[in-house]
Amino acid sequence: MCSENPQPKLFDAVGTIADIFFRYSARDGRKNTMTKKAVKELFEDELGTKLNDEYGQQAIEALMSNFDADGDCEISFEEFMKFVGKFGCSMFSDDLAE
Ligand SMILES: [Ca+2]
Q1: pTM to 2 decimals?
Q2: Residue 52 belongs to what domain range?
């Protein structure tokens, strides 16, 4: 059955991002933050990025240092959303340059 008022796509997109964040935060028993281990698993599972080699370890350390704004060694939802924003801009950087 079709809905006459489907959920706006942006709400769906943000809901999907939130679902991903909270699924990985829960893996280490956290409610509102992701540990470095959870961030690594998210990158591997959701972005297909392998982080087991030395380069991968450096990448995850850089990510944590760049987006862990409060320095608690975990990534909050707000910090994660800033990463998603930067990631989205990088995906469309050629289009944005015009
Ligand atoms: Ca943090």
Answers
A1: 0.82
A2: 9-96
